[in-house]
Design goal:
alpha/beta, TIM Barrel, 2 domains, 9 strands
Length: about 290
């Protein structure tokens, strides 16, 4: 087998960012899935933070997974993969100094790129889970990430949710992240191509898009023309794997079993309701503790 080194995979990912076409990233969660993605023809893959939390902890995407746990899962993929892997590093697991540690560990795990988002994570007391940290703090995290990497080919991608703030704030944020040295900007919550054009007119770096199946942003040629180089269309493979596991187990066990969708299965078996009750008790003013 002619295996590519982690450095070669990082160089390959940078070539995708600097290319002229739009690539769809495979959502992967274990060594078999990333080998399948490469065999099918995907040129890059992503380990989502939500997927890692479900796969490692059986818990919903509420920032319970630790850096060590996430890195271990990323390393399992890194050992097996022959396509570049993007790690969804959430908030970098803390402040700018924690981000530096995150970059060091994920670089050793073999990822080709990592996203760092400006969401306030974990959710703070009595605040919405979509609250963003300050522009200055977020930009400092991107700068710290660049300093921390010892392999300059590792790509640092700044991620922001444009659907929870104003257009002007999103533009200011992405300008700052570009200035801080982000190799690409990842956008979540884009409505359509007009919205995308407004958000990116000032940017020189490539765009990564988290789409979640929005049909308004489905045209790969228009995406490529808009400087979008990587698109993530959610995490359907993991949902399908959960569904198939449930149905296989039901088929082996006699009796009546409810027909549940993948979303219902994940909500049920990740104990989503239990965690919501805990959040209602401990993260909200006016809780039962008062």
């Amino acid at each position: 087998m002619n295996e590519r080194s982690h450095s070669e995979l990082r160089i390959a990912f940078r070539a995708l960012l600097q290319g002229t076409s739009c690539k769809f990233a495979a959502s992967v969660f274990n060594p078999l899935s990333v080998r399948m993605a490469a065999d099918i023809g995907f040129e890059t893959a992503i380990l989502g933070g939500s997927v890692a939390s479900l796969q490692v902890l059986g818990a919903p995407d509420i920032t319970l997974i630790t850096l060590d746990e996430f890195t271990e899962q990323a390393a399992r993929l890194g050992r097996a993969s022959q396509i570049p892997i993007i790690a969804d590093a959430d908030h970098g697991y803390g402040n700018a100094l924690n981000v530096m540690r995150t970059v060091t560990e994920l670089q050793k795990a073999g990822v080709a790129a990592l996203t760092l988002e400006d969401t306030q994570l974990p959710a703070s007391y009595n605040n919405a889970s979509t609250q963003l940290i300050s522009l200055d703090e977020a930009a400092s995290k991107i700068y710290a990430a660049r300093v921390a990497r010892s392999d300059e080919t590792l790509s640092i991608i700044a991620r922001t949710h444009v659907g929870v703030t104003t257009l002007n704030d999103s533009i200011a944020r992405t300008k700052a992240y570009q200035k801080a040295g982000a190799d690409a900007i990842c956008l979540v919550g884009v409505k359509d191509f007009d919205h995308l054009a407004q958000l990116t007119a000032h940017l020189r770096v490539p765009i990564m898009l988290i789409n979640y199946g929005n049909p308004e942003l489905a045209d790969p040629d228009r995406l490529a023309a808009a400087n979008v180089r990587i698109v993530v269309n959610g995490h359907k493979p993991y949902f399908a794997a959960v569904q198939a596991t449930y149905e296989a187990l039901c088929a082996e066990q006699p009796g009546e079993h409810p027909a549940l969708t993948a979303s219902q299965l994940i909500a049920k078996y990740s104990l989503s309701d239990s965690y919501q009750r805990l959040a209602d008790t401990y993260l909200q003013a006016g809780s039962s503790l008062n």
